[in-house]
Design the sequence.
């Protein structure tokens, strides 16, 4: 008997669907071990992280509130990664989107305005995010500068810009010197959907984005182009597609969606700008994109799962006194296992009877 | 001590972690592998190094723990990117996210703990020389180790057979494999060396640079180290120059803030990141035409089963 490992000619579809589930199962197992090491009962730990966020209506709303920016950003990143463009600066594009959106809210503050304020904020935020994402895109196509490094460096720049704004020119004069802007007027805040809780119109908006992106990828020529450029760049060149235009397109789309997520955070979740407006959504969305197999509908499911870990992490901090870093460890482990499972399914493992020389025939 | 001397001394300490982390990643990339997990390995080195130093009271054991943590982290990356031929960019990102989280857990109980920074070299007579003394003979051991590392890597890559084989794996792994070299094993050693260097750089931060632990204390230095490798066109000597350039900018902006220059402090803090972007653009533009990057960089290698 011996184990034969062979590369599969074609990975069957069902295996591609179950591989993320394997990854989640392995993450839960490792999580149980980690809880044991931290002196927490593994069942209590896993329950707090993965089940407690789903047990009451308020927590469910919070899951949706956290999943919304994640799925918005992850859909955009999926388009980038599919076409071999490595935008990892979504966190910065989110911040700039929030800043552009908030500029409208701050400028119109205190004056009677119509219902146009919120749509204007959304447009401004998306334009801001897209412009900011165009910087690494243009540096890549014009100067061949590595987009991974430039997009990441711009995250720090964006965060410092936000910090300056909320401590300097945009600080609320009646805010007791706290580094934050004024609370936005009601017309500059996303309409809440329930009487209690923070669920707002951004959640259905995100679903719409998922639907549009799914159709774009599966049913349009642009979607086909995105997939071909990533998987077979030579074929794409023969087809006459310009990889530079595509780089600009996917960076602009993902920047606009990250900017939209920024407006959602500033206007829907917080109602103002603060020095920290995101618990790392832009980075977590990278994991969401991979867990969702770079597919918009998959991203939706993955965003909900990772949103659960955010809420679970907050619950665990309160109930079990575990630091918030546990959430990040979970997220990192999850990405490891996704990548490992995806690599493993490319091989076929079979046990062959017979001696080591393989002379069974 | 003159102002110039003070600035020069701080530039050296600020540049040293960048030199150490970047020279490790340079070897990794010359072997044809991109490990974007430098930031994660570095912060684990900082957390584990500090924790071990506090628990044992020994700086030396702290340094060893930091290096060990970096190597251990790099082995996770090696398992994914080399063992399973997974996407290197995503594997490296996962390593950074994982490391930032795990370091928080490791360091949680050491926040607020303080210890003496590593003592600086004190050679009688030589260290007392004006100007040259403190700058050349009055540094902590890490500074000398960092220069030694650069010299050794340069010598290894350009003057030894093993270094030639390593570069062959990075330029064209198929040919190297056909010649009978163990591509994956060589890359594994390179990745481990990179991990050890990143861990050492992290340990330097928490044991000598700022002798305490705070979450996220690497503040993007791992990413800047990656940029320095590109900036240096994968050449050790240029890497040394690049790291000191970036260290110099970090310190200059600190001094500018201290002297109350009428520019928002956030703009000054953003300078190292902005300069990194500009440097990448300038260096990438100048090279368009011939590409200095190792030929097989980032491409996974697997023997066909």
Sequence:
């Amino acid at each position: 008997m011996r184990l034969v490992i062979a590369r599969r000619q074609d990975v069957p579809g069902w295996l591609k669907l179950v591989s993320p589930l394997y990854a989640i199962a392995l993450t839960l197992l490792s999580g149980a071990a980690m809880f044991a090491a931290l002196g927490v009962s593994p069942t209590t730990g896993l329950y707090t992280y993965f089940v407690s966020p789903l047990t009451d209506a308020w927590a469910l709303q919070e899951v949706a509130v956290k999943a919304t920016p994640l799925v918005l950003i992850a859909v955009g990143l999926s388009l980038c990664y599919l076409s071999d463009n490595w935008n990892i600066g979504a966190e910065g594009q989110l911040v700039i989107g929030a800043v552009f959106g908030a500029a409208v809210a701050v400028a119109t503050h205190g004056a009677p305005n119509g219902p146009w304020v919120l749509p204007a904020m959304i447009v401004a935020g998306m334009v801001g995010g897209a412009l900011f994402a165009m910087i690494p895109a243009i540096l890549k196509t014009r100067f061949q500068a590595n987009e991974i490094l430039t997009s990441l460096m711009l995250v720090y720049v964006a965060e410092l810009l936000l910090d300056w704004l909320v401590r300097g020119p945009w600080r609320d004069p009646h805010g007791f010197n706290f580094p934050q802007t004024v609370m936005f007027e009601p017309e500059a805040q996303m309409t809440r959907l329930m009487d209690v809780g923070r669920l707002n119109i951004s959640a259905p908006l995100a679903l719409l984005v998922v639907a549009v992106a799914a159709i774009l990828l599966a049913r349009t020529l642009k979607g086909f182009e995105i997939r071909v450029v990533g998987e077979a760049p030579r074929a794409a060149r023969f087809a006459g597609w310009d990889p530079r235009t595509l780089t600009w397109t996917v960076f602009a789309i993902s920047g606009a969606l990250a900017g939209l997520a920024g407006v959602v955070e500033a206007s829907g979740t917080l109602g103002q700008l603060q020095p920290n407006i995101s618990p790392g959504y832009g980075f977590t969305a990278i994991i969401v994109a991979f867990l969702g197999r770079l597919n918009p509908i998959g991203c939706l499911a993955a965003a909900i799962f990772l949103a659960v870990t955010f809420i679970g992490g907050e619950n665990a901090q309160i109930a079990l006194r575990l630091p918030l870093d546990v959430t990040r460890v979970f997220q990192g482990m999850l990405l490891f296992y996704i990548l490992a499972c995806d690599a493993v399914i490319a091989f076929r493992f079979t046990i062959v009877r017979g001696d080591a020389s393989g002379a069974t025939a | 001590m003159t102002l110039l001397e003070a600035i020069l001394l701080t530039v050296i300490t600020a540049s040293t972690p960048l030199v150490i982390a970047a020279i490790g990643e340079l070897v990794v990339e010359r072997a044809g592998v991109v490990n974007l997990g430098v930031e994660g390995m570095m912060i684990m080195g900082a957390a584990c190094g500090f924790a071990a130093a506090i628990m044992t009271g020994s700086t030396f054991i702290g340094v060893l723990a930091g290096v060990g943590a970096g190597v251990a982290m790099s082995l996770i990356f090696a398992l994914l990117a080399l063992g399973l031929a997974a996407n290197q960019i995503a594997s490296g990102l996962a390593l950074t996210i994982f490391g930032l989280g795990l370091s928080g857990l490791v360091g949680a109980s050491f926040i607020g703990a303080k210890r003496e920074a590593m003592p600086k070299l004190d050679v009688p007579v030589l260290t007392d020389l004006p100007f040259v003394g403190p700058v050349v003979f009055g540094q902590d051991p890490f500074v000398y180790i960092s220069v030694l590392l650069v010299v050794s890597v340069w010598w290894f890559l350009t003057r030894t057979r093993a270094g030639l084989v390593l570069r062959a794996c990075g330029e064209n792994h198929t040919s190297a494999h056909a010649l009978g070299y163990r591509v994956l094993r060589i890359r594994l050693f390179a990745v481990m060396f990179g991990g050890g260097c990143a861990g050492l750089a992290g340990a330097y931060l928490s044991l000598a640079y700022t002798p305490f632990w705070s979450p996220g204390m690497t503040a993007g230095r791992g990413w800047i180290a990656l940029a320095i490798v590109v900036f240096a066109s994968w050449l050790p000597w240029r890497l040394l120059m690049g790291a000191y350039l970036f260290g110099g900018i970090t310190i200059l902006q600190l001094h500018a803030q201290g002297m109350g220059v009428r520019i928002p402090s956030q703009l000054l803090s953003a300078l190292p990141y902005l300069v990194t972007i500009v440097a990448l653009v300038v260096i990438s533009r100048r090279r368009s035409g011939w590409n200095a990057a190792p030929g097989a960089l980032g491409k996974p290698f697997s023997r066909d089963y």
In short: The CA atoms of residues 132 and 291 of chain A lie 26 Å apart. Strands of chain A lie at 2-7, 347-352. The first strand of chain A starts at residue 2 and ends at 7. Chain A touches chain B through 47 residues (CB under 8 Å).
